[in-house]
Structures are given as C-alpha cells and as structure tokens.
Design a protein that fits this description.
Elements: H1 5-18, E1 24-25, H2 26-35, H3 41-53, E2 57-62, E3 65-70, H4 72-81, H5 87-109, E4 110-116, E5 122-130, E6 133-142, H6 145-170
Antiparallel strand pairs: 1-3, 2-3, 4-5, 5-6
Helix pairs in contact: 1-3, 1-4
C-alpha cells in the first residue's frame, strides 16, 4: 500500500506519543525519526506543526524544550490508521524506547525554567514531575538572569542529589 510520506511520519509521531506515559520532546521524536533517516529536520517540523494544528497532539514549551503529548483525537486517529505503520518500524520504535526510555523519562520529568518577575528580579522554577503529579516545585528569586540560568542548568545536573538532601532533611 503506497501512502503519502507525511502521513506516515505523522502516524509514527502519534504512535511514539501513544506508547509512553509521559510527554516526549520534539528532540526525542527527532532522535528517532531523523536517526533512522526517515526524513529531514524541516519536514519533521512541518509534520509536528500540522499535528498540532489538527489538535492531534498538544505542545507545551518550557525553557528551550517543546514537550508533546497525544490528544484523545490523536489516539482515535491512531486507532483507525495505526495499521498503516509497518511492523518493522514499530519494532524499531520499541527498540528505541527500550534503549532510551529511562533517559527520556528523566528528561521529561525534570523541568527548569526562569523568567523575569514583576518585581524586576528573575525567578528560577525547578520541578520534578511523575506522570501528572508534581513531586517537587521550587521557585527561587535571584537578582539577575545569569544566576537564574545557572540555577536551571545546575538543576538539570544535580536534581537527584538535591531531592535526596531535601528528603533526608525533611523526613
């Protein structure tokens, strides 16, 4: 069965988002699709934009990452057309998740962003999420953007030890 390549890339994206219990970033989807040479970067961006416009996926931007989630309408579409994805592609996706799921889950669970507050200072918001539950949510006010950016970068690297410290000190 011959089909439009864009349709296949959309179905692959929906299939990937349907197979995880956490949002995936554009970069994570790109790692798979571009890594297997299915298409190029610009076409992938077009595919994601069209899926968002059709409300088959939802996008949320935090800091320098865009997180994607499948919608109910996306799941319905996948249930009708998911059989158009070749079994070898599904196997490749399963292998990709087996190799990278822990890293992807961690990347989606650990969030850090900063913004300028109404007082003129910067606030760094640091979070750990598990599914839809916020486990840690810390907001720190700092005097400048460089400090806020450094805090966010350090959170990405040191969140586990900071969380462990908080638990041992508070419980």
């Amino acid at each position: 069965m011959v089909q439009d390549p864009l349709t296949l890339y959309k179905l692959i994206t929906l299939y990937m988002l349907d197979r995880v219990s956490f949002p995936l970033t554009k970069a994570q989807i790109g790692d798979f699709i571009l890594g297997h040479d299915y298409t190029n970067f610009l076409t992938l961006q077009q595919v994601i934009a069209e899926l968002i416009d059709a409300e088959l996926i939802r996008a949320k931007s935090l800091s320098n990452r865009t997180y994607l989630e499948i919608t109910e309408e996306g799941r319905n579409t996948l249930s009708y057309f998911g059989n158009r994805i070749n079994d070898s592609i599904k196997e490749d996706i399963a292998a990709f998740f087996a190799d990278h799921e822990m890293d992807m889950r961690s990347e989606s669970a650990i969030r850090a962003d900063y913004y300028k507050s109404t007082s003129g200072e910067f606030e760094a918001r640091l979070q750990i999420k598990e599914k839809d539950v916020t486990v840690v949510d810390i907001t720190l006010s700092v005097p400048d953007e460089d400090t806020a950016a450094a805090i966010c970068a350090n959170w990405q690297q040191k969140n586990q030890s900071i969380y462990q410290y908080l638990i041992t000190q508070l419980f």
